[in-house]
Amino acid sequence: MTGAAPASPLPRVVILGGGFGGMHAARALRRAPVSVTLIDRTNHHLFQPLLYQVATAALSPSDITVPIRWVLRGVHNATVLLGEARAIDLAARTVTLDDGRHAVPYDYLVVATGARHAYFGHDEWEGHAPGLKTLDDALEIRRRFLLSFELAERCETDAGRAAHQSFVVVGAGPTGVELAGMLPELARHAFHRDFRRTDTRRTRVILVEGGPRILPGFVPSLAARAHRDLEELGVEIRTNAVVTRVDGEGVSIGAERIASRTVFWAAGNRASSLTRQLGVPLDKSGRAIVNPDLSIPGHPEVFVVGDAAAATSEGRPVPGVAQGAMQGGVHAARNVLRTLRGEPRRPFRYWNKGELATIGRNRAIGDLGFMRIAGTPAWVFWIFLHIMYLVGFRNRLVVFMQWAWAYFTYQRGSRLITGRERGEEEARLRHTGEHTIERG
Amino acid sequence: MTGAAPASPLPRVVILGGGFGGMHAARALRRAPVSVTLIDRTNHHLFQPLLYQVATAALSPSDITVPIRWVLRGVHNATVLLGEARAIDLAARTVTLDDGRHAVPYDYLVVATGARHAYFGHDEWEGHAPGLKTLDDALEIRRRFLLSFELAERCETDAGRAAHQSFVVVGAGPTGVELAGMLPELARHAFHRDFRRTDTRRTRVILVEGGPRILPGFVPSLAARAHRDLEELGVEIRTNAVVTRVDGEGVSIGAERIASRTVFWAAGNRASSLTRQLGVPLDKSGRAIVNPDLSIPGHPEVFVVGDAAAATSEGRPVPGVAQGAMQGGVHAARNVLRTLRGEPRRPFRYWNKGELATIGRNRAIGDLGFMRIAGTPAWVFWIFLHIMYLVGFRNRLVVFMQWAWAYFTYQRGSRLITGRERGEEEARLRHTGEHTIERG
To answer: What is the ipTM of this complex?
Structure first.
């Protein structure tokens, strides 16, 4: 079986991954004289910048996802296949899918498979400290966060309750800051009246950062503002704090020990393992080091974009953010078309439209290049921008409504404890008798 | 540890189950001189009548669920515990939770643990034909339904595609009819433009009923109207068709064989296994046969309500519907209070407010006692009623918006393939190389 129509005389472009990079590449090939096959292991495109909102029960999974085929329904030269790419054969120019039978041939390949979080060589920490990259991750974090209050309510001692009410977030990049900033508000306002034995206002949130300051990607003045905002929200911040151990009872920072049953990981990325099959140099995060045109050395027909690539723009590294992936996907697609037309390829130029991070209710920071904003204006701008970019009219409207509802009522729309426990956590929770029935 | 405050001098009412029966019992005890503990194995109350809408990707799980503690936040004498009741000790008057340590004492017990679907002694069919009682079930049905089109799109032969596009629904009560009625519209309208190799209009939906007609709970004229409506939607109906075998390849009805990879079960109920511990006679569905006041013989302090009980009202059996559970929960609570006040208990009187079943877009039937309705008026009434009863202001608004959106665009809000496969299905899907990554 072939990915595109087998008898097609059109050049076959295969795109791996339906994230920002892959989707923008596919859309940029609309009406082009190529046959496109997009392969993803899920049926949905995920709006990753809002994933932490699912993790904190503000939004539902379906609010930040759209079916990939629905987005591409008007791209008539594109076929969508559900499947996971297991192997790339650069010589034969085929991609083998997870059932081992499908070898999808390509003339051009765009690898946009993204990244997972990394534990700096301590993969055993993953069971205790889930990261936040996929919908699955978000639901796991939501489950643990909500469940910890249920466990506290069943607890017989104040000490036990305190351990269940201490949350550690490791890593103070935008994801860690967003997560840490949401938790105190939730605990203090949304949950306060719902528990009888547990004082949810006693909840502790500790944000741990290995570097000297939070939000290292931002200018110091904005990061300092975010630091102050987080402290006002009640988040305890530990900088220059390198985590040396994570287990079911807490986190160690050198000799210091923070007792916590619930740890979240937002401290590092590693590119999808598929990049290792490209036979090209990788950087220390496993990203393929690409040429200026985003192709890989020795294979001008293979492009890598987004978080799977270590790309540069005018000598500077392209940051691993949604904008970079979107622009990279479009650029790779256009270089394919240039080659087909016999034109020279162009080097990738990353256009930084600005950086935003939200901290909590009415609190955000933004660096738009020509100006810096903070506080309520930045927060309103953040909401506007994220609603704008959300794919699909329905999702925009629903998300906006949910936010408005959450803002005025302090309540949460998706307080569902779902899914069974994952990894090592399983044993602990089963031991203490906690396991939930529903998933969703 | 005790369920209610240990030193409380107030009588302790323990309610098992946060469905319609349990929640109504708890709310009826608001401000009463009792201490209430409600125990559920999930943290959410589920609006079960709309579960088939989650199963067919119209609504998100969070649209039809609310946290139990959120609903009861104003019932200050009620404590909510997440946990599963494993054993009831009628002599000691305690309920043991799933961790084996918690023995929650009660003075009055209300068992409202509902029912699961039953396979008439063929539990091995469950892996091939999931039922629809919990959120987990709904997500499993949604996953299988959406996945079957993805599998069809990956198929190399028309015959393979046809098997993936044939759906069998077993049982033509309201749930089976609602499910069967939704599928053709989804396949033909919502999915049509999204697939390149699969003609989703060729989808077959077969509704199998063991009895002589569909919707046996309704008067024949309304059932006949529903029968006609379903056929107009393209559903093939087989009555007097007793299923003799279900496997991964299809369904057998005596000698006849229907090839189908996706079978849904809506054909029978069995009460929660907790009723077996009550030591009282059960009916053939495992429901506890209760006294007229809803208590069990020999234990006036123990009540059973909703789908776990075989109750009668003025000599007629109370149907296993939401109304029956709600009214039963309130009645049991009031009988507890009557006993505490030294008043005689009253027998349960079921008030049938009417029966409604929806069949599809603009199609429904309703029997309100004083009048019968069908078609668009019944459908609009159905929408109105279900929005009215949905717990929580936010949910009402969101659900209404999603329905309006779905109605005018023919699209679906929650086309998420989530969760890993369940039961025996796992082997088959893994064998064919299909497994999905996200759950949600």
So the answer is: 0.81
Q: Tell me the residue length of chain B.
A: 440
Residues of A classed as catalytic = 178
Rounded to whole angstroms, the Cα distance separating A410 from B210 reads 50
The tokens for A261 are 């049953």
Q: What is the DSSP letter of A343?
A: P
Whole-angstrom Cα distance, residue B145 to residue B415? 10
Model confidence over A364-423: pLDDT tens digits? 999 988 899 999 988 888 888 888 777 665 667 677 777 777 676 666 667 777 655 444
Please say if the pLDDT value at position B244 is more than 70. Answer: yes
User: Chain B within 8 Å of A153 (Cβ-Cβ)?
Assistant: yes
Is the distance from CB of A34 to CB of A12 less than 8 angstroms? yes
| CATH 3.50.50.100 location in chain B | 123-267+355-431
Q: CATH 3.50.50.60 in chain A: give the residue spans.
A: 12-41+83-117+269-340
Answer whether B398 touches A (CB < 8 Å). Answer: yes
Three-state secondary-structure class, residue A295: strand
**What is the rounded CA–CA span in Å between residue A108 and residue A130?**
35
Q: Judge: A415–B70 Cβ closer than 8 Å, yes or no.
A: yes
Cα gap B67→B46, rounded to integer Å: 9
Give A402's contacts in chain B (Cβ within 8 Å): 394, 398
If one counts every other C-beta atom within 10 angstroms of the C-beta of residue A354, the result is: 15
Pairing label, strands A299-304, A309-310: unpaired
CATH superfamily of A12-41+83-117+269-340: FAD/NAD(P)-binding domain (3.50.50.60)
Indicate if the pLDDT at residue B76 is higher than 70: yes
pLDDT band with cut points at 50, 70 and 90 for residue A96: very high
Task: Give CA A402 to chain center in angstroms.
Answer: 21
The neighbour count for residue A435, using CB atoms within 10 Å, is 17
- For chain A, positions 403-432, list CB contacts with chain B under 8 A: 405, 409, 411, 413-419, 432
Contact B43 A413 (CB under 8 A): no
> Residues 15 to 54 of B: which have CB under 8 A from any A CB?
41-44, 54
Task: Tell which residue, A98, A107, A183, has the closest CA to residue A149.
Answer: A183
Local structure of A175: helix, strand or coil:
helix
Q: Is A339 on the interface with B (CB under 8 A)?
A: no
3-state helix, strand, coil in chain A (%, to 5): 35, 25, 40
Domain(s) labelled CATH 3.50.50.100 in chain A stretch across 123-267+415-431
In chain A, residues with a C-beta closer than 8 Å to the C-beta of B397 are: 401, 405
Out of B65, B138, B194, whose CB is closest to A69? B194
From the list A44, A134, A196, the residue facing B79 with the nearest CB is A196
Cβ contacts of A153 within 8 Å, gap of 6 or more: A195, A196, A197, A198, B79, B80, B81, B82
Which of these is catalytic: B178, B185, B355, B425?
B178
B150 touches chain A (CB under 8 A): yes
Q: pTM of the entire structure?
A: 0.85
Round to whole Å and give the CA distance between A203 and B80: 19
Chain B nearest C-alpha distance from A84 (Å): 9
Query: Is B178 one of the annotated active-site residues of the chain?
Result: yes
Torsion angle of the four alpha carbons A358, A361, A363, A369, in this order, in degrees rounded to the nearest 10: 40
Q: Is B133 on the interface with A (CB under 8 A)?
A: no
CATH of domain A123-267+415-431: 3.50.50.100
Q: What is the number of other CB atoms lying within 10 angstroms of the CB of residue A92?
A: 11
Interchain CB distance below 8 Å, A43 and B398: no
A259 reaches B (C-beta below 8 A) = no
**CATH top-level class of B123-267+355-431:** alpha beta
C-alpha–C-alpha distance, residues A12 and A24, integer Å: 17
